[in-house]
Structure formats: structure tokens, C-alpha cells
Amino acid sequence: MKSVLFWLLLAAVPGWSETRGATFAPVVLYTQYAQAPPEAVRHALQEEVERIMSPLGFVFEWRDIADPTGQRVSAELALITFEGRCDTGIATPSGKRSGPLGWTHISDGQILPFTSVSCDRVREIVQPILVTSHSEARPGIYGHALARVLAHELYHIFARTQHHGSLGVAKESYSMWDLVDAEFRFEDKESNLLRSTRAAGTW
């Protein structure tokens, strides 16, 4: 069995849906953290994922994989692993880390509902913004950045595609500004693909 990964890399430069009349069961997102984030970061992350995905027909239930009371059987789910330290603490520069911001697994050409996000890599990319921001604003900035990486990986899972868009959340690489700008969303082509796969229940 051959397994590969989809990687979201850094660019070289720094509710209910609009599907009219459609009601969908919530998608369960199971999360596990190498180090649990502050609640403000977690809230901002979930809020931003839902802002990006809910217009396309996705309603989520967030569950901690380690909480036995939060586990239930669901045909519509994804398992998300957050690797590294998921807080806004400013790290002392020690050389740039290499590697992707996020990645999703596939096996024998089939996309699996298992994805990972590198908290350390994302924080490193947005650190120039964090260090110049008020401490109260940092959890929101960082949580939104993590959410955009996660939304990209959820696109691969829910659209069942290996392809990337040319712009927006589905593009192959992000700049720092993609992670922190006020507005960042899917372009029409990828939005329509997600809506159609959601409506057809093909994932």
C-alpha cells in the first residue's frame, strides 16, 4: 500500500450554507494536540474555519479525540493533529524550520480524512506580525492563521481532490499575508466543487 502526503507550503514571498434549501448533518472534526492551545487561540481557529467553510454547506462539531464523552460514530468526520506548540509565545530565533505548514494523507490514490497542521511552522511565519501586535490581539491572529492552513487541508479531504487552486485558500503555497489578511476565502471554482461534493455526499 503506497502512502503519500499533500503538503501546504509557504510561498517564497513573505451556521448554515448558501446551498438553498439544503440541510446537512454536522461533520465531526476530531482534534488532538501535541500541546493544547490557549482557549482564545482554539476559539479563533474554530471561528475562522467556520467562516470559511460554512457558506459552502459545512457545519462542524469539534471534538477532542482524548475525551471519551465527546466521541460518537459518524460517517462524516476528519481527524486533525496539531503538531508542536500551539500558543503565541514568541520564540527566540534559532534558524528557520523547513517543511510544510500542513499536510493530508492519501493511500493508493485515495484521500484519507487524516490531516496535520504544524503549529510551530505557522507561528514562525506570522511571528513578525505577532511581535508588533498587542498581546490581546495575538491569539486571534495566530488562531486565524492556523485555521486557514486547516481549511486548505479540509478542502483536499472534502473535495476529494489532489489539485490546488491558483488563488485563495486552495492555492498551493501561502505568503505571510495570506495567513493574516482580513479576508481570505476559496475562489469560485473551488467553492463550487466543495458545494457539489457536499450536496452529493460523495466524500
Structural notes for this entry:
This protein is of the alpha/beta class and 203 residues long. It has a single domain, classed as 3-Layer(aba) Sandwich (Collagenase (Catalytic Domain)), CATH 3.40.390. It has helices at 39-53, 119-130, 138-159, 176-180, 188-200, and strands at residues 3-10, 27-33, 60-64, 77-83, 102-107, 110-118, 173-174. The two termini are 21 Å apart.
Describe, in short, the structure shown.
By secondary structure, the chain is of the alpha/beta class. The protein has helices spanning 39-53, 119-130, 138-159, 176-180, 188-200; strands at residues 3-10, 27-33, 60-64, 77-83, 102-107, 110-118, 173-174.
What is the mean pLDDT? 86
Task: Indicate the CATH architecture.
Answer: 3-Layer(aba) Sandwich
CATH-derived topology: Collagenase (Catalytic Domain)
DSSP, total strands:
7
Strand order of the largest sheet: 3-2-4-6-5-1-7
What portion of the residues fall into strands of 2 or more residues?
15-25%
Radius of gyration: 16 Å
Task: Classify the helix fraction into a percent range.
Answer: 25-40%
The assigned structural class equals alpha/beta
Straight-line distance between termini: 21 Å
**What are the segments in which pLDDT stays under 50 over at least 5 consecutive residues?**
12-22
| Total domain modules | 1
The outline comes out as: globular
Give the name of the CATH superfamily. Answer: Collagenase (Catalytic Domain)
Query: Given this structure, which CATH class is correct?
Result: Alpha Beta
